[in-house]
Specification:
single chain
Length: 264
C-alpha cells in the first residue's frame, strides 16, 4: 500500500512538472492536460475528484505565473478585477453545474473542449496589432465576457486562458502581452472559486494537489529556461502540442463513451 502511495506521489509530481513545463514553454493550453494526466496516469478514477483537484492546481499555477507579469507591468489591474468579478459568479455557477453532471458525461464534454483548444492552438494566437486600449463602453463587454469564460472554467475545472486572452483583447483593445498578463489573475480567481466549490463537497485530493503543484513549479522553471532557447521553434512546438491534445482527447472520448455504453 505504501509503495502504491509513493508511486502515485511520484507520478503526481512528474505530471505536474509536465503541465508546468508546457505552460512556461508555449503559454496557454498546457493546463488542459491536467485532467487527463490525473485521470489516466496518476490514477484518480472519480472524474469530479479529478476536476476539483485540477482546478486548485491550475489556480495556484496561474497566480505563480502572474508575479513576473505583474513585475513587468503587463497586468491591467482595473480590467483584471472587473473581469474576475463577474467571472467568479460564472465559475461558481459552472462548477455547481459540473458537480451535478454525470462524471462520464463530463469527461465526454471535456474531450470535445480539448479538440476546440487544439484547433485554436493550430490557428495560433494572432497579434492584436496597435494597442487600442481602452475601447469605449468596454466595462459592460468585460462583464459579459467574464461571466461566460468563468462559467466554462468552473464547469471543466480548467484555467480557460485560451478563451480569456482573446476575450480581453476583443473587449478592451489591449495588446496581447497585456491580455496574457491580465488573464492570469482571472484564471487564478476562477480556479480558486471552482476549487472551493468542489472542496465543500469533499472533491479535492489534497496530497495529490500539493504534489502536482510542487511538480508544476519545478516544470515551470525548466520550461522558462527552455523557452528562451527554443523561441524560434515556438510555432512547431505549438503544432506538436496541439497534436498531443487531439490524441489525448480521442483517447478520453473512446474510454468515456465505452464506459457509458457498457453501463447500458
Amino acid at each position: 500500500m505504501t509503495h502504491l502511495l509513493s508511486m502515485q506521489a511520484l507520478l503526481a509530481i512528474l505530471c505536474g512538472s509536465l503541465v508546468g513545463f508546457s505552460l512556461a514553454l508555449i503559454g496557454g493550453g498546457g493546463s488542459i492536460l491536467a485532467v487527463p494526466l490525473l485521470l489516466y496516469v496518476v490514477g484518480i478514477h472519480d472524474p469530479h475528484l479529478v476536476i476539483g483537484t485540477s482546478a486548485l492546481a491550475v489556480a495556484i499555477n496561474a497566480f505563480a505565473n502572474l508575479i513576473p507579469h505583474a513585475r513587468a507591468g503587463h497586468v491591467r489591474w482595473k480590467v483584471a478585477f472587473t473581469f474576475a468579478a463577474t467571472g467568479i459568479v460564472g465559475a461558481y455557477l459552472g462548477s455547481s453545474l459540473g458537480k451535478a453532471v454525470n462524471g462520464q458525461h463530463l469527461l465526454v464534454f471535456f474531450a470535445l473542449l480539448m479538440l476546440v483548444v487544439a484547433a485554436m492552438m493550430l490557428r495560433g494566437r494572432r497579434s492584436s496589432g496597435p494597442d487600442r486600449y481602452p475601447l469605449p463602453h468596454m466595462y459592460p463587454r468585460l462583464g459579459v465576457t467574464g461571466l461566460g469564460a468563468g462559467g466554462l472554467a468552473g464547469f471543466f475545472g480548467i484555467g480557460g486562458g485560451f478563451l480569456i486572452v482573446p476575450g480581453l483583447m476583443l473587449a478592451t483593445g489591449m495588446e496581447i502581452i497585456y491580455a496574457i498578463g491580465t488573464s492570469l489573475f482571472a484564471v487564478g480567481a476562477f480556479g480558486l472559486t471552482a476549487a472551493a466549490n468542489y472542496a465543500i463537497s469533499g472533491l479535492i485530493d489534497w496530497p495529490v494537489a500539493a504534489e502536482f503543484i510542487g511538480g508544476g513549479i519545478i516544470g515551470g522553471w525548466l520550461g522558462a529556461v527552455a523557452a528562451k532557447r527554443l523561441a524560434k521553434t515556438r510555432g512547431v512546438l505549438n503544432v506538436i502540442f496541439a497534436i498531443v491534445i487531439v490524441l489525448v482527447a480521442i483517447l478520453m472520448l473512446y474510454k468515456s463513451l465505452h464506459t457509458l455504453w457498457g453501463a447500458h
